[in-house]
Amino acid sequence: MEQRYHNSQKEVKEMNTAELREQFLVDELMVKGEIKFTYSHYDRVIVGGAVPTSGKLSLENFPMLRAEYFLERREMGVINVGGNGKIEVDGNTYEVNKKDCLYIGRGSKNISFSSASADEPALFYILSTPAHKEYDTKLMKESDATPVTLGAAETSNHRTIYKYIFADGLQSCQLVMGLTILNTGSVWNTMPAHVHDRRMEAYFYFDLADDQTIFHFMGEPQETRHITIHNNEAVISPPWSIHSGCGTSNYSFIWGMGGENQDYGDMDPVKITDLK
């Protein structure tokens, strides 16, 4: 498990391209036959990926967590962005296919991931936050996520938002999680941009062609920076930073938050004309 520490606005303002990528980009997340994790000190969020092939991958504990097992004091959300798969949690099996989400509650001990086919493995994107209370482990299928359509083709941001783990969906302590799909011809996400000082956020970009890229914008609204991101890569967004992207083609992304509240509308919008 890799660790990433806090960076202040002043530090980020002075970073070059390599330094920005080292601090905020989470690449090599989906590796066949492995589970990969990055521990961020922003709200103690853990970003991970699991790609089981011919056998099961079991969730192991890490000494740095100072816990008896991974979810002793944590909760977890998992969204599959690959082939059909299954997740076993303490003897219960859940079929988690593409764009399905499984919430796994605090106190769950024995967790494993598997794919229906080694040739088309599941790609499980994982987000974990600290938790102070147990909530039931539950599955939400893509068809049950109550999609909301926003934006327009004229502004190149016609998109559909699927909310999974939030106040009116799968219950959690503090984790919020969902995904957004951009229509063909639309390339902008989360524009107009916003910040939310009470929650950090992580983005995971997927369903992007291998020969295309995304420019993810971060930083203070008047001191923006960008990181170039490719398919199946994630980016860590500090609470004081905007988090918006523009691709060379349409794509999808998973958004997830951890912090002080679960209010989806708790954000401070930034006018497009005020960005610098």
TrEMBL record:
Known cofactor(s): Zn(2+)
Pfam families for the chain: KduI
Keywords: Isomerase, Metal-binding, Zinc
Organism superkingdom: Bacteria
Catalytic activity: 5-dehydro-4-deoxy-D-glucuronate = 3-deoxy-D-glycero-2,5-hexodiulosonate
One GO MF term: zinc ion binding
Cofactor descriptive note: Binds 1 zinc ion per subunit.
Residue numbers binding Zn(2+): H194, H196, E201, H243
Pathway involvement of the protein, from the record: Glycan metabolism; pectin degradation; 2-dehydro-3-deoxy-D-gluconate from pectin: step 4/5
EC number, UniProt record: 5.3.1.17
UniProt KW Metal-binding keyword: yes
HAMAP family documented for this protein: KduI (MF_00687)
Assigned protein family: Belongs to the KduI family.
Function: Catalyzes the isomerization of 5-dehydro-4-deoxy-D-glucuronate to 3-deoxy-D-glycero-2,5-hexodiulosonate.
PANTHER family (UniProt xref): 4-DEOXY-L-THREO-5-HEXOSULOSE-URONATE KETOL-ISOMERASE (PTHR38461)
Protein name (Swiss-Prot/TrEMBL): 4-deoxy-L-threo-5-hexosulose-uronate ketol-isomerase
Species in which this protein is naturally found: Pedobacter psychrophilus
